[in-house]
Each structure stands twice: as C-alpha cells, then as structure tokens.
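User: I'm writing a tutorial on reading structure tokens. Could you give me a worked example: one chain, its sequence, then its tokens, then a sentence or two explaining what the tokens reveal?
Assistant: Sure. Here is the example chain.
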Amino acid sequence: MKKATLRNYARLIVRTGVNVQKGQEVFISAELDQPAFVAMVVEEAYRAGAKRVVVDWSYQPLTKLHVRHQPMKVLGGMSDWELARWQHYTEALPCRIYLLSDDPDGLRGVNQTKLAKAQMKIIPIIKPYRDKIENRYQWCIAAVPGRAWAKKLFPEKRAGQAIEALWEAILQTSRADGDDPTAAWQAHNRALQSRCAHLNALGIRKLHYYGDNGTDLTVGMIPEGRFRGGSETSLQNIVFNPNIPTEECFISPKRGEAEGVVYATKPLSYQGQLIEDFWIRFAGGKAVEWHAEKNESLLGDLIGMDEGSAYLGECALVPHDSPISNLGLLFYNTLFDENAACHLALGLGFADTIDGFENRTLEECRALGVNDSGVHEDFMIGYAGLNIDAETDSGTVPVFRNGAWAF
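And here are its predicted structure tokens:
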C-alpha cells in the first residue's frame, strides 16, 4: 500500500476521527500487526498538538495465557496502577483510538467460563469510571489488517497479498482511498445527518422488524429519543467521528419494550470467537430464549454478563445496498459487518441519543429508558428481505422494504 495513502488514513483517524486538540493526551490501543502504521498515527497526533501519546499493545496469544494461568482473583480484579489509570482518564479526558486487527478466531480454545466470570467481576469495578467520562471525551475505532484476519477473508491468497487486499477493503470502505478523505467524510456526515433528521421528524413510537427468515420483533422507542449518525459532539463541544467506517442511523430504544424473535444474519465475533447462526427471543424487553449453531454457550455468557446485558441498547438502520455490503465481503469484524446491515446491540444504550442530553444527568437519561450495562455488543440482523415499519402517532410508516430505505 502506498505510504502517502496510509499517511492520509492516519491523518483522517487523528483529525477527523478523534479530532485531537492542542495539549490533549492520546491513548492508542493496537495489536502487534501494523507497528509502522501505528507510528504514523502517533506522529500525526503529535502534529495535531497532542502533548503525550501512549500506545497500549495487545496480543491474543498472551490473553490466552493469562486466562489459563492467572487465578480468578487476579484475572477478575484490577491492580492499583490500573485503577489509577482509569482515574486519570476521568480527570484528563484523553482521546482514545482503537485500531482493530484481531484474528476473529484468535481466542479459540480459551476457557470461556473462566473468561466470562472474570469479565463479570471487572465490569462493576470500572463502571463508575466509565460513567464519569460518558460523552465527555473523543474516541475513534478504526482498523488495520492483521495477518490471520486477512487470511480468513482471503484464504486463497498468500499472506502478503491477503494483507494488501484487506488494506484496500479497509481504505475503500473508510473513504480513505481518495485524494481528500476529509472532504469525503464531511459530505458523508451531512448525508447521514439528513437521513436522521427525516427519521426524527416521523415521531416514531415503535419499530417493527419482520422478514421471511423468521424475524418478527417489535421494539419501543423513548419519546425523547433521537436518531444519530456520523459525527458526534462531546460535552467539551468537540466534534469527532467515533467509527471509521460508519453507515448507520442509530437510536437507543426504551428498556423493557421489545417483543418477538430476531434472527442474526451474520456471525458475531465476540471474545476472539465466532457465534454463528443464532436467534434471540425477547419478552418484556429481555432476552429470554436463544439458540446458536456454533458457540451457543458464549452467546449465553454475553446475554448473562450483567443485569442489563439481556436488554437492547441500540437499534441501527443500514440499507443492504451500502458500500460495505456491496463489497460482498464478510469481514468477521463487527466494526465493518455492523455497517453492512441493520443491527441491534445487547447492553449499554447511548445517553446522547436523548434530546437535550447535554442538559440532563446520565441518571436522568437512564430513567427515561436508556439501558445501562457494562457491555455493548452489536449483532447483525439486516439482509435483502428485511422489512421495518415505524408505528407513529399518525399511523404506520414504512421505513425499510426488502432491505432498502422505503423513503
């Protein structure tokens, strides 16, 4: 891949993604796959005025070793220095960049039960810190090719060719392969926000999802809820783009108002493993029954992670005819697959989908119906046969027909 193109992508993540401000700190999370590109991102952050850039490297084989050998008290706990770092996040509000390149099967064979129990112990420890920084800082999730990830997508290619092919797919779908990615994103944000404005004008009370694959689900909306898409503005009044790429118009539904069954249309990559061919039934807003052909127990661990993980935190609308979907690639990565299809999320809802959230407390937003949880996991339900109706005060309005916008 041309160095100039990669440089533009690094600049896009820093300037349009997290939008680093002069004097801010930047924390980057990355696997070991693309160190040269990570160095580009670090350099661009400093050029944007960052006073300190910290890179936290991770490596899936080490994670497997930690799960195997650490006692539960250690695996499910946090040391003083880890808590001190979380406290620093609440005070300094650094930008957070997450560069994904994980092997979708990289944690295959790990002790799922032990890992799930450890996460259930850690979630309530870090939750107070997360609540303090909610909507106050800038963050961006983007991706770079990993060798194993690339080979899973392009098994017929040699490793180097597969990595190059994945670079091309990432840059194309991230609108980073042209001469001016910044201008491309400005236009894209305007288009998404125009779509959201139309949806918000409908006054939607419920969304009814149905299709010939068996999906028949009705989800209630919060009266004060609003669809969001593209760029966001933090409570520090800084505009940023949390996902590169993104194609969604999303909203947080009302906790406790979901009835029916929904079928996943793509595998879910969770904890370095794939959950495949699954469905979930909701009653009283809660997931009460589910089945997966592969990794059903892992799906159960996710749904039972905490009190809120069995409820919905997000409804996102993405047409089947969209850039990522049209590539015809199954990425085995939620950042891309969720932007190729309509999706739902189990767990945490977004307070910033509430009208006037900046003048409300987090507790007030949750009292209106925004779900609270220590997890947020998207799963894809969109396909060419999905229909969605909006129930409004004026009657039923078609939103999707056969996987496409109905207006």
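What the tokens reveal: Residues 121 and 332 are 28 Å apart (CA to CA). DSSP finds 13 helices and 19 strands in the chain.
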